[in-house]
Amino acid sequence: MGLATRGSLRPWVMAPGSLSRRLAALGRGFEVQLLRQGLARLQAAERAALGARGPSLVREVLLHVGGEPVVWARSAVLLRATRGPWKALKGLGTRPLAHLLYGDPRIQRSALCPQRLPRVGATRRGLARSWQQAGQGLPPAGLQWSRSSVFTRGGAALRVMEVFAPALVGQPPGARRISGKPLPPFWVQTLPGPPRGPA
Fold first, then answer.
1. 31 belongs to an annotated ligand binding site
2. Which among 13, 65, 91, 189 could disulfide-bond with 31, CB atoms 3.0 to 4.6 Å apart, if both were Cys?
3. The pTM is what?
């Protein structure tokens, strides 16, 4: 598996373009598991990135390759933006977020911001909760490197954070299949989310 240092995961953490398509290009079956999408309180980094407070929509997913979870992703947007520039997000369902973000010239992306996860805090708690809800038990110890970026459309911001599992160490991010060629179409199998509890 290898040690999940920033150096060993750097090709993934710094890979431009669609992460979902790069995972799909590995060719072993790419799956999206929607864990949560609904109203939630923003974390401090999300409030800073969105530049405002207010009711917000948060989406959390696990991305699987070959049946193994390799990325946990959390997206956040102000709720009012889902009635305008980001309204398609509410109907995205189990499709990858990349379906909305790439190929639209009106969407701009900030620079990638790599970061080592703190040992404690809201992100760690949310990650652990999602991992267990997905039936994966405790998150692996090497789950410590993340990146974030902000997508802007029509003046409204959408922050996306992605956390990389050590299972990706030593696996190039589909570069040979992507460089200079059109990306392959998604092969997406929808995995069931966690059962709903009482309201």
1. no
2. 189
3. 0.82
In this predicted model, what pLDDT tens digit does every residue of 47-56 receive, in sequence order? 999 988 889 9
To the question of whether residue 97 is assigned a binding role by annotation, the answer is yes
**196 token code pair:** 């709903």
User: Is residue 12 within 8 Å of residue 165, measured between CB atoms?
Assistant: no
- Domains by residue range for the chain, with CATH: 6-187 (3.40.1410.10)
In total, the chain counts a number of residues equal to 199
Does the annotation list 36 as a binding residue? no
The per-residue pLDDT for range 169-184, each reduced to its tens digit, is 888 886 433 333 333 3
**C-alpha–C-alpha distance, residues 180 and 130, integer Å:** 36
